[in-house]
Amino acid sequence: MRKKKDLPLVILKSLEPYVNLIGEKFEVVDPKDNLLKVIDIDSESSFHFTIVRYQLSNGGTYQFYMERAPKNDKNNGVYGTWLEISELSKQFESWTNILDEYEEVNSFFDDPIVKSFSEEFYTEFEIVDEDADKIPFNTKQILILDNYLNKVDETLSHYITEGNSSDVNDIKEEILLLRENLTKKSKKWVVSKLSKIWAKIAKQGTVFIREFLSESKKELIKQGVKGLIGYVKENGQDLLN
């Protein structure tokens, strides 16, 4: 495993501004064998900004090898090039601007119904913690969420029909992805994904809303993620079993 003292101090200082960087549309993740890796927060997207390695140029200055996708507004493929470390912030800003433009443009591939429901549910959580973008829920909250998601996943199986199988299986895949990341992602990320799952459930119709999204069931989860474990124990003991 790479250690920070394996790298020149000038390299560490040039990457330092990105260590705790937070954005609405991107996430800084473990770079593993790279020096920096930032990914599109959309789990269905392969867009990324990666600093792969560094080198000392013939001119005596350090350079980064950058890979990013999309390259620009005309090419959404992977692009790689060497750049001076002083150019890093400019290149990163260019990449985030493209993410913003993707978010703002209207297309036939958007689902306004899911988006509207998702925004409604996300607002209900009222996540105001200052560290919501950085740290995960505590272990008690994670267990509540995991237990709940497991029960939803199991119950959804009873509602699969020939007409909705594709949509319901998509929801089940979203649930699996969320469960796998409960201990790895921030509070804000988890709530955003849960809101999207609820939105996709709501789109399936009133039967699904009554079964999965009654106010009492939503309230249990909302109070659980706010840390009011006592409320959940008193009103939804089955979520803890």
Structural write-up:
With 241 residues, the chain is an alpha+beta fold. 48% of the residues lie in helices and 13% in strands. It has helices at 9-15, 88-104, 112-125, 139-156, 165-181, 187-203, 206-212, 215-225, 229-235, and strands spanning 26-29, 36-40, 48-56, 62-69, 79-84. A five-stranded antiparallel sheet has the order 1-2-3-4-5, with helices on one face. A hairpin with a 6-residue loop joins β1 and β2. α6 (187-203) crosses α7 (206-212). The radius of gyration is 21 Å and the shape is elongated.
Task: Give a nutshell description of this structure.
The chain is an alpha+beta fold and 241 residues long.
Topology:
Blueprint: H1 9-15, E1 26-29, E2 36-40, E3 48-56, E4 62-69, E5 79-84, H2 88-104, H3 112-125, H4 139-156, H5 165-181, H6 187-203, H7 206-212, H8 215-225, H9 229-235
Antiparallel strand pairs: 1-2, 2-3, 3-4, 4-5
List keywords for this structure.
241 residues; 5 strands; single chain; alpha+beta; five-stranded antiparallel sheet; 9 helices
Number of strands: 5
Order of helices and strands: HEEEEEHHHHHHHH
Helix proportion: 40-55%
What Rg, in angstroms, do the CA atoms define? 21 Å
Strand order of the largest sheet: 1-2-3-4-5
User: N-to-C terminal Cα separation, in Å?
Assistant: 38 Å
What ranges have pLDDT less than 50 throughout 5 or more consecutive residues?
A: none
> Residue-averaged pLDDT, rounded?
89
Main sheet makeup: 5 strands, antiparallel
Query: Please, how many helices?
Result: 9
* Anisotropy-based shape: elongated
Decide which structural class fits the backbone: alpha+beta
Q: Could you tell me the strand content as a percent range?
A: 5-15%
